[in-house]
Amino acid sequence: xxxxLVNGPNLNLLGTREPGIYGAATLAxxxxxxxxxxxxxxxxxxxxxxxxxxxxxxxxxxxxxxxxQFVVINxxxxxxxxVAIRDAFAGVSIPFCEVHISNVHKREAFRxxxxxSDIAVGVMAGFGVQGYTLALEFVIAQLEQAKT
Length: 148
Ligand code: DQA
Fold this sequence. Notes:
It holds the Pfam family DHquinase_II. This protein has 5 helices and 5 strands; from the N terminus they run βααβαβαββα.
């Protein structure tokens, strides 16, 4: 049983991409920290990044049968455009948390709407890459609670 961490388009450029907005940590840093955090609590964290909407949809479908209990996703720009990723989550019924490194609500108006937030368990935005850590802390606590 495991947690799936999904990062969407352009998040492979973390560390060099608009560092004033997204910070200096790389995707490898984020993924290594997530795996270590999971391991410390006895949970496997599988990491996936893609710049392609369909690949993200396929990975969410695969989560239905690979033991994934919870997904943490930063959908990147697909947050604001993707009915397909929304429908994938609705279709597999796996709970998920949505993470944004930046505070999308104080940025351009087109970033204010998410196709996912109303079906997410929770949303983190504006806490930098620490948002992933905070979301995982919540997810791990949820999984521990489910055991009892
Ligand atoms: C982002 C915010 C999105 O609006 C943007 O398209 C991204 C990253 C964030 O982590 O703050 O790619 O999801």
